[in-house]
Amino acid sequence: MTFTAPVLNYTLLSPILILLGGALLGVLVEAFVSKAMRAVTQLSLTVGTLVLSLAQVWRIHNEVSMSAAMGSVIIDGPAVLLQASILIISIISVFLIADTDHFTALAAALPGSEEERHSLETGNQVTEVYPLTLFAISGMMLFPIASDLITLFVALEMLSLPLYLMAGLSRRRRLASQEAALKYFLLGAFSSAFFLFGMAYLYGYSASVTYAGIRESVVGGSGNDVLLLVGMAFLTIGLLFKVGAVPFHAWSPDVYQGAPTPITGFMAAATKVAAFGAMLRIYYTVFANAQWSWSPLLSFIAIVTMLFGSLVAIAQRDVKRMLAYSSIAHAGFLLAGVIALNKAGLEASIFYLFAYGVATVGAFAVVTLVRDSSGEVTDLNRWKGLGKRSPWVAVSFAGFLLAFAGIPLTSGFIGKFSIFSAAYESGAKGVVIAGVLSSAIAAFFYIRVIVLMFFTDATQDGTSVQLPSFLTRATLVISIVVTLVLGVYPAPLLNLISHFSTFIR
Amino acid sequence: MMTSTSLVYLIALPLAGSAILLLAGRRSDKWGHLLATALSASSFVVGLYQLSLMLGRSTGERPITQKLFEWISVGSFKIDASLMLDQLSICFVLLITGVGTLIHIYSISYMSHDPDRRRFFAFLNLFIAAMLLLVLGDSYLNLYVGWEGVGLASYLLIGFWNQKPAYATASKKAFVMNRVGDMGLSFAIMIAFATMGTVSFSGVKEAVDHTSTAALTGIGIMLLVAATGKSAQFPLQAWLGDAMAGPTPVSALIHAATMVTAGVYLITRSNFIFDAAPTAQLLVVIVGAITLMFGALIGTAKDDIKKALAASTMSQIGYMILGAGLGPVGYAFAIMHLLTHGFFKAGMFLGAGSVMHGMNDEVNMRKYGALRKFMPITFATFGLGYLAILGVPPFAGFYSKDMIIETAFNSGGAKGIILGCVTLLGAGITAFYMTRVMILTFTGKSRWDDEAHPHESPWLMWLPMAILAIGSLTSGYLLSHGDALVNWLSPLFENHAEHAELLSPLVVSGLALAMVAIGIAIAFVKYSRNEVAAVAPTDVSIFTTIARQDLLQDRFNEAVFMQPGQVLTAVLVKTDEAVIDGAVRGVGRIALGSGSALRGVQTGFVRSYAALILIGAVALVAAIWVVTQ
Predict the structure, then answer these.
(1) Which pLDDT score, from 0 to 100, does residue B128 have?
(2) Is B621 in Cβ contact with A194 (below 8 Å)?
(3) Do both B395 and B341 map to the same domain?
(4) For A416-428, what is each residue's pLDDT tens digit?
(5) Which residues in chain B (571-610) have CB-CB distances under 8 A to chain A?
(6) What is the 3-state secondary structure (H, E, C) of B607-626?
(7) Distance between terminal CA atoms of chain B?
(8) How many other β-carbons are positioned within 10 Å of the β-carbon of residue B25?
(9) pLDDT(A88) > 90
(10) Could you give the CA distance from residue B501 to residue B106 in angstroms, rounded to a whole number?
């Protein structure tokens, strides 16, 4: 038996390899660096790794290759754009993660136990969240560039496993946090099973696990359609679970609420980019020729997701749950971009993912700042009058909400406008009508929060806005500037995306 | 069209000045006014440089453009932010930056005691930048940005002393009335885009041939509405008098020389639309004729020197609008009158400012008198402006105003005779009220209070006045010598067929001078022979009373717009509460109800979530089966 060594193009893979290397170094730092230096070392290592990886993405931005890793990954324009988006969103998320006050001092200790109190009192703060974040990001980077189902699945697990852990790291309300982590893990495992099951069917259909092989069978139309349809449906369930589309969304409000807020922001923004990136590639290339079978169903799911997310968000009293439902609604809007199945749809989706991701991190950054003596205050009723006490924070939160609502002069408007017009062009009129309708419903609760902050008198209950640290402030400023600039002058980014938005097959 | 890379500096220089002064705040109190003046002057130098380049090119190649960036690009709808400099805009560029710089210099001294002088200069620079954008934009949309920009600057400057409630109200009034006009401009842009698919000047010009007359008339009327708002023309004229609340240099720059003439620019720039829409063009003439009489009549009754000058501005712009409405023959004369008016009216406003400066900010002419002896330079420069506005040869107004009168007479038929008589009569009334201003202010016996110590203004103030006075003396001759301006502008306008000449130029000049002489004579008899009362007499005829109240324009607005408006608003509020809010609340309740019901699905149990996923999966597979069967 001969063994052929795989031929790898290390340059093209370097963005992911750098992240993995940084994560492994992080594990060593956790073990060997003194506790006084640990947090700052980890933070600089993580940010440095991310920036280096981003620089590497920039270096390869003109490369197009199907053979970077023996046909397992594809590097092309959308791949570069999605990777860059994930990295930028990750960097501003890491700035939020840097505030250790959100994280339990010792995750291994039982909630309320002696060890937990001890490590809190002695300031023995573990910082394993940094390497976990880097591992998750490397999975996210691999997810949209995978070009066979095995790699896709490995990437899915690579990004999911660290996230399950990170959801359970909250310092306060630790039981709720751990419950969220467990729920996320169980349901994630459940959906992974569907995903694997779907893979098996697709292999049965085409005798191949590569995108190219499956695509060939779909185009040829020679295989057994039942295998294809069931395989496609189950694979889709795995992906829809990750993006939180109805009816596979149930985990998201609980997890969003339970997880430490910086992790929620990171998860909501970066996971969406990765999952939709993979989804766009699969539907735009592999299944494009079977559009007749999946388009009506995905349209139906998109419509239900948008309406459900917007309607239920209205009834929320907790800001993190409200943002969770809003993110479900946004998953529906993004599905419209998948359904469009044209170049405009791809461009719009990539723009939307980036704009939404940045605004989401910004919004959660604001949530981290509103606190009382026992931690974050997420009850919306206690956000009353925030605009009078901390106008800048409230104004930026209002900016993010207006972007979510898709009000002109924010990035959200350009995103919604372009994604809906792409879907309309492709004939998905029902989706567009439902989208506009649910946008109107959604505007109701976004604007209600703004009214609450600016036009309602404050209650005296010790809620206060913490003075943002330098890094949190950086996140806030970057997000609000990006949100506004993309709303006022989106042309350069749109042109850039348009230039790069062609999947190779 | 040739492209250029330096047009942007015209706007960027004053814009940068404004930004620096506003951002640097109090730190720039010491040098801010100097920087602003220097930047305005350098913009003027850039303008002169561009003129020299333009003169060096052959006629067809004179217009140049500069694309700044792609502004809006949504599908097939593409708008670039581009600038265009042609023979028409260069006239405006030099007027704006030239007169603007003089007024900057004047303000250094005029505003020297104001603690907020820096802010004043920041706004002045902002105004210059916005006005330049207005005249340099290459499409209606770019023009619109500048149009709103000057509106903003005007609002900020009228209300500059907003600690006085009356002044704040005046700025609000100007702002609101301008919005009415601005609606016209936005409607015009929308109609143009809907019918022609473009909003650039060149695109619209090309599209005129295959656009229906109805659409063109609509655009024309909406542009006219815009012009009446910005240029204080009937029926949106009421704000200009109140705008005099702003510091006097502002009145000179914005409310006499430049911004209020933007309406004339808009109509002249849109000549291709009005030439193809005779109804709209006729309306332009009517508006111009009404306003020129309106302003002149108000001018006869005002005791406030600035308000008298404001009424005169209104009337003179009426002449320009009328000229622009006379079609291809009139455009160049309208612009010529605009330029000469820019000199003499700005000069007179600065003179009024100088008088106020020496008289403890008194504006009531009945409390002046005999100032000639105390302010010789102001008297001389104001006097030159006075002769220019009257149209006495060889002063500037003689050339420009007589041209308009002559064109009006020669526009043919009964229309020509009516317009000719209106413009002639207007010239006579102008002579009357301007002579009144001269007599009340500079001659006769002194009627001032004991606290007043009239004195000549410092050189920083009289120097700009002197330069403008030279302009009042020479600009008319220079612009009309050998038809200089007419030939310069002619490539931009359609060639026109000559009308039969009703009256020869010599006859028109003779008639006009006769009217002027009559006006002066009446004023002398009325005010120079008799003692002028220091307090305005109250036992006056009904006509004087009406004229003093600006021909009842505010009452008219109140009765026709405001009160019905208030009733309408009240009804709408009721409807809104009962119907719309009711519906919204209903939808909100339904949404809230269904939201709460749907929330019930969220039990918090992993098993029910997993069941939901399973049900979803089964449903999905079932649905695929149904869809594909």
Answers:
(1) 92
(2) no
(3) yes
(4) 999 999 999 898 8
(5) 588, 591-592, 594-596, 598-599, 601-602, 604, 606, 608-610
(6) HHHHHHHHHHHHHHHHHHHH
(7) 62
(8) 12
(9) yes
(10) 45
CA nearest B606 in A: which residue? A183
pLDDT on residue B156: 85
For chain B, residues with pLDDT lower than 50 are: none
* pTM for the full predicted model: 0.64
Which tokens sit at A197? Answer: 């099951």
Considering the domain architecture, whether residues B392 and B523 belong to the same structural domain is answered as: yes
Does residue B485 share a domain with residue B347?
Answer: yes
Cα(first)–Cα(last) distance of chain A, in Å? 33
Is there a contact between A314 and B627 if contact means CB atoms under 8 Å apart?
A: no
pLDDT for residue B166: 77
- The total domain count for chain B is 2
Quote the minimal CA–CA distance from B26 to chain A in Å: 23
Local structure of A470: helix, strand or coil: helix
Q: How far is A495 from chain B (nearest CA, A)?
A: 10
d(CA A1, CA B392): 112
Crossing angle for the helix pair B413-442 and B396-409, to the nearest 10 degrees:
150
User: In one letter, which amino acid is A74?
Assistant: I
**Six token digits for residue B208:** 């005129």
Least CA distance to A301: which residue of chain B? B620
| B554 vs A59: CA distance, rounded Å | 68
Please, which residues bridge with residue B304 across strands? B364
- Per DSSP, helices labelled H in B481-605 are 484-489, 505-523, 542-548, 553-557, 563-575, 581-599
Identify the pLDDT of residue A312: 86
CA pair distance A220, A284, nearest whole angstrom:
17
Give the whole-angstrom CA distance, residue B529 versus residue B167: 37
B483, burial (CB in 10 Å: exposed 0-12, middle 13-18, buried 19+): exposed
Same domain membership, residue B573 and residue B515: no
**Listed residues B488, B519, B548: the one ending a domain:** B548
Enclosing domain of residue A317 = 10-500
**Angle made by CA atoms A285, A288, A292, in degrees to the nearest 5:** 165
Q: Does A242 score more than 80 pLDDT? A: yes
Please name which of A18, A97, A28 lies closest in space to residue A54, comparing C-alpha atoms.
Answer: A18
User: Residue B117 CB: number of other CB atoms within 10 A?
Assistant: 18
> Mean pLDDT, to the nearest integer, of A307-320?
87
The answer to whether A211 touches A218, Cβ cutoff 8 Å, is no
Q: What is the pLDDT of residues A437-491, one digit of tens each?
A: 888 888 888 888 888 888 888 776 667 787 888 899 999 999 999 999 998 888 8
